[in-house]
Amino acid sequence: MIAGRDRKPSTTSGDAHLPRAFFDRPVLDVAPDLLGRVLVRTTTEGRMRLRITEVEAYAGEADPGSHAYRGRTERNASMFGPPGHAYVYFIYGMWFSLNLVCGAEGQASGVLIRAGEVLEGAEQARQRRPKARKDQELAKGPARLATALAVDRELNGADVCTHDDTAPLSITAGEPAEPGAMKNGPRTGVGGDAAHYPWRFWLEGDPTVSPYRPHKPRNRRPELDASRSTP
């Protein structure tokens, strides 16, 4: 059972934009409540819609696995802003990842959008993800999702609670998942003291959910290790 879900705001239409109050809650309330919601991405090529099927929660300075654990930096500044905005970061010098800021301003908590089902705009996604063997793989994992939806640093800080249909990024109510359809467990690739926090949430049995992978320390090149041992 996931604590805190009794505070979920009600919505009357699947096409209704989620209000800022939805995100102005503790991250462990917001994260599972995003399952089944719809991420809307508007590009110059047209509109895309993605049903969210997998997320991870990060609790800012209280969470050793969070970018904000050691405080505010130029990179993570968006996490400390008001709820209902995007935090986009570049990882391993190769991929972008999309997060949604939640909680009170200054708390720096956020939800990583890990995977989803492309409901509209699949042709755009296929052009950006030509190696995907089938549509259920278009956004199966945070880097694939960001690539399919053309997410980059231009979206960092974007307001996702706008009611403007031309906004580059927004969230609509969709069909929130039933608690019985959800599972939770450790976050993918998180090591150290936060390795076992069960803050990854997904829709059980959904083919778009990415596989879980535990943290593996990155091996240093031998010549780097040798240089470090030199007095």
List keywords for this structure.
alpha+beta; hydrolase; EC 3.2.2.-; Putative 3-methyladenine DNA glycosylase; disordered N terminus; 5 helices; eight-stranded antiparallel β-sheet; single chain; glycosidase; DNA repair
3D structure, described in words:
The protein has helices at 20-23, 27-33, 122-128, 142-148, 222-228; strands spanning 38-43, 46-58, 86-91, 95-102, 109-120, 169-172, 182-185, 200-203. With 231 residues, it is an alpha+beta fold. Strands 1, 2, 3, 4, 5, 6, 7 and 8 form an eight-stranded antiparallel sheet that branches. β1 (38-43) and β2 form a beta hairpin. The radius of gyration is 18 Å and the shape is globular. Keywords: DNA damage, DNA repair, Glycosidase, Hydrolase. This is Putative 3-methyladenine DNA glycosylase. Belongs to the DNA glycosylase MPG family. GO terms for molecular function: hydrolase activity, acting on glycosyl bonds.
Strand and helix layout:
Elements lengths: L19 H4 L3 H7 L4 E6 L2 E13 L27 E6 L3 E8 L6 E12 L1 H7 L13 H7 L20 E4 L9 E4 L14 E4 L18 H7 L3
Antiparallel strand pairs: 1-2, 1-6, 2-5, 2-8, 3-4, 4-5, 7-8
The end-to-end distance, rounded to whole angstroms, is 53 Å
β-sheet strand percentage: 15-25%
> Over all CA atoms, what is the radius of gyration?
18 Å
Sketch the major β-sheet. Answer: 8 strands, antiparallel
By DSSP, the count of extended strands is 8
* Uncertain ranges: 1-12, 220-231
User: What class would the helix/strand composition place it in?
Assistant: alpha+beta
EC number: 3.2.2.-
Biased composition (Basic and acidic residues): 220-231
Region (Disordered): 205-231
Enzyme class: hydrolase
